[in-house]
Write a sequence for this structure.
């Protein structure tokens, strides 16, 4: 505790014999009952573990607070304010010291209440300082806003309500009117009205109209500048519009290019560049011919296309079976030979199945030996859609042809078996006649051998000669015994 | 100097100045709280009648918890008393200045003790090991570890 000045000499019984001052936090040793300031005896015991007065052994554990009476006696001693040197003349009980210094002593230095001010002021001077502190808030007498005193001079040079002076004519006016003044001041330095066009003259406003305009070379051709700038601006506008259009068109082109690329990718081999697409002019006819390969039964597929087929024929080898490559660029052509006109017609003749029957001569048979008919080539130079649809038609035609072929085969088979049955019946009949004849011959011979053959019974049998089959039928010899079993 | 020793010394000085020193003791100078000088003479019947000695007190920051360094001043003007416990360089072999020091003791108490030590002297002679001690003695008597024989 700091040094204190006591108004009266304290009772010597209240004096600590270590610090020779009235006890502070009086502490009594339990062993010897001597009393000291707490801090004094604590340090002394740490230095030498004995009572300073009677040298009896003593430790920190033997210390305890002194009797409250002692504490009250020393706390109520009257002391002078420690700030007596500064001017405080107050006296009070020692226990009130901290309260006095903290709250009431006028001679304590406290910090200024303004945050930015770091000065320490005696409490009694706080009021004075408040009026003098450079950080105090104050009001501008012009505009009335609240500002820090330290900012006042800066504010004064900016405050719109304060007067300002023109730099050119030295006239004074409120700052708020400075712009208006600048627009009218005759001495205000301005540039030429033709500054935009290149005039570099600057000078007081009154000189502009009085002197400069008369001599300014730019002013003389003011009309030209006006027309020029008008045209320029219109050109600029037009240019901007055009540029916008170009942008739009570019984006369109971009889109189209993308689309085209997509189509090219989709088309794959069907896509030909511009030059390649000028392929031989037979393209349309060949694809039409291809449409009619295997000649579907006459259907909606039009007589007109058949005409084109006929027209296209000369370009093919007319002989069926000879598949001559008619076009170098069409490698697929051999696989799709065009059907011969003849075959085309023949394909609808139903009774053609006799062909397999060698015994009957059919005038058409010689031309029907070729089942394979020429087919139109696949043409890559035509459009994909056309090719696809023609392919589809062709497949339909093929399936129809196959169908009709199957039907014809069925009918032919039936006819053939009927004919066979017929012939078998007639043969059976002939054999039977032969057997009867043979039997009669045998009977005749037996009668001759025995000498007396039955004359009358053979009479009716003579009628059978009418049924003799043709000579050619008798030629086959019977190697074995007569087929009596027939 | 820390507050506790200076406050204590200020109080002692105030006391000496207001109430005076014990008889035979005079404060010569106390210009600071580090070194004080006193003159001391033995009144009444003694071997040192008429002789005046000069005492020097040196305080450190731990006073009064630890003892001050006390010795007689030996120079052209003054000498140390011839005494079995006083070396010729002025150092004093007294238990209260060493192990027997107590914070309760004060400057004037030390003076009175030394006064009585001199007064009770029976024969004026130097300590037996005076020459050897003086040759190696440190400047500060507090750095000596005396062996107190109780005489």
């Amino acid at each position: 505790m700091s040094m204190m000045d006591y108004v009266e000499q304290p009772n010597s019984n209240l004096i600590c014999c270590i610090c020779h001052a009235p006890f502070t936090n009086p502490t009594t040793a339990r062993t010897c009952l001597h009393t000291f300031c707490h801090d004094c005896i604590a340090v002394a015991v740490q230095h030498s573990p004995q009572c300073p007065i009677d040298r009896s052994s003593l430790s920190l554990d033997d210390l305890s607070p002194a009797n409250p009476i002692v504490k009250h006696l020393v706390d109520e001693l009257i002391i002078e304010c420690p700030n007596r040197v500064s001017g405080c003349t107050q006296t009070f009980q020692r226990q009130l010291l901290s309260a006095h210094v903290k709250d009431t002593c006028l001679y304590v230095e406290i910090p200024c209440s303004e945050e930015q001010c770091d000065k320490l002021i005696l409490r009694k001077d706080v009021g004075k300082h408040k009026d003098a502190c450079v950080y105090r808030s104050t009001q501008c007498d012009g505009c009335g806003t609240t500002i820090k005193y330290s900012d006042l001079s800066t504010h004064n040079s900016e405050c719109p309500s304060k007067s300002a002076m023109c730099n050119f004519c030295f006239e004074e006016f409120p700052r708020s009117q400075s712009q208006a003044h600048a627009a009218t001041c005759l001495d205000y330095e301005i540039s030429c009205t033709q500054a935009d066009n290149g005039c570099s003259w600057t000078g007081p406003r009154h000189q502009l109209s009085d002197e400069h305009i008369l001599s300014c070379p730019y002013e003389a051709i003011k009309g030209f500048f006006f027309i020029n700038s008008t045209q320029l601006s219109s050109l600029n506008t037009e240019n901007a519009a055009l540029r916008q259009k170009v942008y739009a068109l570019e984006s369109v082109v971009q889109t189209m290019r993308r689309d085209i690329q997509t189509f090219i990718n989709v088309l794959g081999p069907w896509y030909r560049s511009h030059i390649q697409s000028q392929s031989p002019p037979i393209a349309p006819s060949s694809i039409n011919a291809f449409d009619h390969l295997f000649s579907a039964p006459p259907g909606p597929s039009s007589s007109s296309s058949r005409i084109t087929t006929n027209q296209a024929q000369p370009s093919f080898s007319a002989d069926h079976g000879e598949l001559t490559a008619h076009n170098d660029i069409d490698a697929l052509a051999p696989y799709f030979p065009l059907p011969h006109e003849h075959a085309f017609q023949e394909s609808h003749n139903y009774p053609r199945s006799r062909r397999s029957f060698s015994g009957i001569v059919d005038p058409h048979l010689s031309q029907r030996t070729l089942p394979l008919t020429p087919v139109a080539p696949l043409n890559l130079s035509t459009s994909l859609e056309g090719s696809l649809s023609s392919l589809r038609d062709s497949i339909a035609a093929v399936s129809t042809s196959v169908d009709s072929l199957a039907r014809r085969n069925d009918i032919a088979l039936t006819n053939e078996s009927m004919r066979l049955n017929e012939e078998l019946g007639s043969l059976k009949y002939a054999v039977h006649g032969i057997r009867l004849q043979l039997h009669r011959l045998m009977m005749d011979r037996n009668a001759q051998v025995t000498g007396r053959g039955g004359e009358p019974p053979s009479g009716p049998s003579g009628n059978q000669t009418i049924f003799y089959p043709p000579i050619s039928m008798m030629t086959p010899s019977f190697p074995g015994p007569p087929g009596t079993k027939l | 100097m820390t507050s506790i020793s200076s406050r204590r010394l200020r109080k002692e000085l105030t006391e000496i100045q207001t109430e005076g020193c014990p008889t035979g003791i005079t404060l010569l100078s106390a210009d600071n709280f580090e070194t004080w000088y006193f003159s001391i003479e033995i009144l009444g019947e003694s071997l040192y009648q008429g002789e005046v000695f000069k005492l020097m007190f040196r305080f450190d920051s731990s006073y009064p918890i630890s003892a001050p360094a006390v010795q007689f001043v030996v120079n052209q003007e003054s000498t140390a008393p011839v005494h079995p416990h006083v070396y010729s360089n002025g150092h004093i072999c007294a238990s209260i200045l060493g192990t027997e020091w107590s914070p309760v003791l004060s400057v004037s108490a030390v003076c009175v003790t030394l006064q009585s030590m001199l007064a009770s002297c029976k024969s004026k002679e130097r300590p037996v090991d005076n020459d050897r001690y003086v040759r190696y003695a440190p400047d500060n008597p507090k750095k000596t570890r005396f062996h107190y024989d109780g005489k």
